[in-house]
Amino acid sequence: MNNALIDTLTSIVGKTQVLCEASAMAPFLTDWRGRYSGSALCVVRPENTEEVARVVAACAAAGVAIVPQGGNTGLVGGATPCAPAGHPQGEVVVSLVRMNRIRAIDLDNNTMTVEAGCILQQVQEAAAAAGRLFPLSLAAEGSATIGGNLSTNAGGVQVLRYGNMRELALGLEVVLADGRIWNGLRGLRKDNTGYDLKHLFIGAEGTLGLITAAVVKLFPLPRARATAWAAVRDPAAAVKLLGRLRDSCGERVNAFEIVGRPALDLVLKHIPSTRDPLAGKFDWQVLLELTDTLEGSRLDTALEAVLAAEAESGCVLDAVLAHSETQAQMLWRLRESISEAQKIDGLSIKHDVSVPISRIAEFIARADALLEKEYPGLRIVCFGHIGDGNLHYNPSKPAALENASFIAAGATVNRMVHDLVAGLGGSISAEHGLGQLKRDEITRYKSATEMDMMRAIKRALDPQ
C-alpha cells in the first residue's frame, strides 16, 4: 500500500475524507448495474476546487492513476476503477459529491454556476425556485451529478427542444491532470477568442481532467403543458407522428419517447402502483409532451388535433391525454422506470445507439431480424428518445438459465448491432459514453485519423 500518498491525501482533505477500509470503499468500487468492480488504494472526497487540485497533483507526483466519480449512476463502467481485486496498488477514486454548492444564479443572464457534485434534481429545484427551468431531465436525476452529466454529455428526454449538456453548458472549471486549475467559468454566449476548450471535457468521461464547476443555461418556466400516451402502428408510424407534431406545434414539442411492449411489460411487472394507460396491449407506444411559456395556451387542443388526424390515417391506434399533473407524472413514471425494471428482472445486453431519425424504423426491423435469426426466442426491450434518434436496444432471454449463455455471447451480439448502426450512419454510444464497456469496441468504428487526434489530445493533457 502507498502509505506516503495516503498520508499526503489525508493532510489535504482530512482523515475522515480518505476512505481506505474495504467496507467504506465498497459503494464506490462497483457500478450501478453491478457489472464492473475494481479495487482502489483509497477513495478521496475533497470539498473544494483547491483540494481537488492538490489531490490530483499528489497522485500525479506519485504516478498513481485517478478515477473521477460523481453519483456513480453510469451504465458503462466509466466511473469504476479498472484495477482487479487484490491489485498491489490500485487507483485513487476521487469522489466529488461533497462539492455540491450552487455558487451563483444570474437571472438577467439566465445562467447558474454550480459545482460538479450537485445532484441534477437539486439544480432543477434551485432553478425552479428562481423562476427558471434547467431542462436536463433523466431517470437518475435524483442521484446523478452535474459533473457526471457533463462528462458523459448527458441527453435525457428533453434534448429534442433544449439540446444535451454540450448545448446547456457555457463555461467550466476544470482541474487538469497535473493539478493546475483552468477557470473557464464564463457565462458568455459569444466568445470567439480561440479554441472552445470546454468542449474537450464535455463528453470526455473524466479522461482529460476533473470538472469541478460549470456555468449552465437557464430557460423560462413552462406555464402550459400537454402530455399524452399513444399507441402507434409501428416505429415508422411513430416517426411520422413526430414529423406531423413538429410541423403543427414547432418548438413546443418538448419530448417524444418510444416504448416497445416488452419494456412496458417489465415496468408493469416490477414497479409497484403502475398500470397500462390503454385498454389494449399494443406493440408500440409513444409518450409525447408539448410545453409553452404562455399561460393558457391550448396545447391539449393542438395535441388532440394531431392525434385525431393520425388516428384517421391509421398511424395512431389509441391514445390518452393527461388531464392533471398527477396523470402526467404517472405516464412519465412508466417511461422513467424502464431501466430500474430491467435491473430488477436481470441482466441484458444493453445498447445505447443513435441513428438518423429517418432510419429508426429500418434499424429496429433489421436488428430484430438479425438477432432473432441467430438467437430465437429473444426478448428485445427497445425504448428511447426517438425525437433525437437515440434508442436503448436491450436484448435478453426471458428464462434465466438461457439468458446466462446469451449474455456470454455479448461480444458477438454487440458486433451485430454496432455494425448495423455504423452502416446506417449512426453511433454506438449516444449518451452513456464508452467507459470500460466500449473502450475497445470504439476502435472498430472510429477512423485511424480520429483515434490519432484523440490520443494526441490525451497525451497533451495527461501524458502519464
Write a structural description.
With 464 residues, the chain is of the alpha+beta class. It is built from 17 helices and 18 strands. The chain has helices at residues 3-13, 22-25, 49-62, 120-129, 146-151, 159-162, 165-168, 198-201, 235-249, 261-270, 299-313, 325-336, 338-345, 360-374, 400-408, 410-423, 448-461; strands spanning 18-19, 40-44, 66-69, 91-95, 102-106, 111-115, 132-133, 169-176, 181-184, 209-217, 219-220, 224-232, 253-260, 284-292, 316-321, 352-354, 379-385, 390-396. It has a 7-stranded antiparallel sheet with strand order 15-12-14-13-17-18-16, with helices on both faces. Strands 5-6-10-8-9 form a 5-stranded antiparallel sheet, sandwiched between helices. Helix 9 crosses helix 11, helix 10 packs across helix 13 and helix 14 (360-374) packs antiparallel against helix 16 (410-423). The radius of gyration is 23 Å and the shape is globular.
